[in-house]
Amino acid sequence: MQVPRIAAARSGLIVLTAIWICVLSPLAVAAAPYAAMVMDARTGEVLHSRNADARLHPASLTKMMTLYIAFEAIRNGEITLDTEVRVSSHAASEPPSKLGLRSGQRIALRYLIRAAAVKSANDAATAIGEAISGSEAAFARRMNATAKALGMTRTTFRNANGLTESGHLSSARDMTVLGRHLLYDYPQYYNLFSRRSTHAGIKTVSNTNRRLLDAYRGADGIKTGYTRAAGFNLVASAQRGEERVIATVFGGTSTASRNAQVAELLDLGFRRAPSRAPLRKPAVPPVYAGGDGSSAVADAGAVRNSLRPRARPAVPVRVAEAVAAAASEDQARIQAGIDAAIAAARPAVPEGAQVAASDPVQSVPRPEARPADIVLASAEAVRREAPAREVVTRVSTSGGQHWGINVGRYSNRYQAEKVLLRTALAEMSTLDGSLRKVVQSPRGFDANFMGMSREHADLACRRLQARNVTCFMIGPS
Question: Which of 286, 334, 443, 448 is found 20 to 30 A from 168 (Cα to Cα)?
Fold first, then answer.
């Protein structure tokens, strides 16, 4: 009657084994759905897919987007690699994998990027998001807007690191697309993903993907991910000769099995990819402009901040009125000067003296003639006694006022003068003191500003060109 006892013992062993596998084993994972995709990186052609559009937990593959936005922010001038980031208590409290940041600590952005890319550090990823957007929630909105701009239609981000959170989902297709953009949009940073180890400011960290990098010929990135809900995820890229493929796996059961699956997918990709194919890089997405993501991207090529000063508002000019007013002021000023000169030259008239009506202004008396007994030295004697002196003159090409600018050639003098006046009024601070001059030639009437130094002319031309006014410098003749 030992059979019941043996059966009971076996049943108990099976139960204990199941408990150990499901609860106690540190590698135990939930039954995560499996998804995969292989893409020709050069053309974006899908070479193989399985459940590629299923919305699954991306785990630390999320950090690919965090890093993508960090590179974008650096390119846009929002932040620099040397910016000292202050670590918040929220970032410092993130669970492992982590760099070990402390609340209040300051660390350069470049080290946070290294830690997130190589070690997959959650605290570093959160600190990056907060440094760029002010909060992780705002950064998640930017992540979603950027995902939409990249064509990642099955992705929703809730945080910067990929820790499991309700609604934080992506797909194998979307992550493959993101990996391709990382490769081609920011090739200057792509080497980060192939480093076996790197210094991250406070310590040296090792790459979570080093086993595949060491084992698979041509592998040079990109990113691993693991949580219980997600399983073992990986986006990997490899190049052999002119061929490059990207493979993605969601839901692996262990690091070893996941790496084996990715290696098989990469092999499949190299078998199916043509030896030669045109390189069709993906389009770089528009610049992020803020908001909730519904309209959070601006037109491609737009710049949020410009170092160029704002152009002055256009000054409406009524040419006829301006010319008349200027002429009137000039005439009044000239007349006042003439009157003052006449008054100063007029000799005092004794009280009671009469002035002829025909001579309203008495002539200034001539000086007396030179006495006849004064003997002047002859010119020949002067030449003999005084050594000959040669006076050499040359035109200054820098400080002299011998330069000018041309603002166009016109069919008649009136048009040239009109443009000169309009330009002078619009750019008074730069052109003040210069001489407006119209020069006629067989080809037309040149509108010039003259009497400027070389530096003054160069500055004036640059300011006018910033207003889309045609301008070139005229050197000393």
Answer: 286
